[in-house]
């Protein structure tokens, strides 16, 4: 594993709060007639974003659920395979469902998850990503809500990891390989 160091801050804590508020405003407006919503937080990366977003949502009944998806393992290289594990059973059929992700990269995780959830006949199904790297897309996938599109740089913090580190940073930073 390469030694990485923080190169620059891309989004401060304050920037992030503004982006999450913008997203919550859009979602609140689109779901204004909606009584209940099934949220699916994709572990581990989107746990911080989910925690912030749900506290800004005004939909009366929110059912928060977790699914574990992992494609990158312990390095920054994708092995090209996405694995899912549901933390606890939840009901999708006939519900309005919103998937929450920290970042859309190749699109493989969400494309596969959306295909899986569609098979369970939701009433509606949308995806909200905090960040998007459109340059990296290798499968056709467009999220319904995106906080910010970003260039193809390796970012950490606000739930995003490098080899399971840095998720706890309250800001989003670009990391680069340490040269001695
Ligand atoms: C990262 C990220 C997304 C996914 C995006 O998760 O949190 O879930 O990769 O990549 P993709 O668009 O190329 O599929 P990761 O698999 O690293 O697991 P983690 O959330 O536990 O860090
Ligand atoms: Mn993830
Ligand atoms: Mg990861």
TrEMBL record:
Example of a GO biological process term: IMP salvage
Subcellular location: Cytoplasm
InterPro entries: HGPRT (IPR050408), Hxn_phspho_trans (IPR005904), PRTase-like (IPR029057), PRTase_dom (IPR000836)
Keyword Nucleotide-binding included in the entry's annotation: yes
Pathway assignment: Purine metabolism; IMP biosynthesis via salvage pathway; IMP from hypoxanthine: step 1/1; Purine metabolism; GMP biosynthesis via salvage pathway; GMP from guanine: step 1/1
Catalysis: reaction(s): GMP + diphosphate = guanine + 5-phospho-alpha-D-ribose 1-diphosphate; IMP + diphosphate = hypoxanthine + 5-phospho-alpha-D-ribose 1-diphosphate
Pfam family, one: Pribosyltran
GO cellular component: cytosol
GO MF terms, alphabetically ordered: guanine phosphoribosyltransferase activity; hypoxanthine phosphoribosyltransferase activity; magnesium ion binding; nucleotide binding
Main location: cytoplasm
Name used for this protein in its record: Hypoxanthine phosphoribosyltransferase
Record-annotated Phosphoribosyltransferase domain positions: 19-162
Keywords: Cytoplasm, Glycosyltransferase, Magnesium, Metal-binding, Nucleotide-binding, Purine salvage, Transferase
Cofactor(s) this protein requires: Mg(2+)
The enzyme's E.C. designation: 2.4.2.8
Role played: Purine salvage pathway enzyme that catalyzes the transfer of the ribosyl-5-phosphate group from 5-phospho-alpha-D-ribose 1-diphosphate (PRPP) to the N9 position of the 6-oxopurines hypoxanthine and guanine to form the corresponding ribonucleotides IMP (inosine 5'-monophosphate) and GMP (guanosine 5'-monophosphate), with the release of PPi.
Origin: domain of life: Bacteria
Family according to the record: Belongs to the purine/pyrimidine phosphoribosyltransferase family.
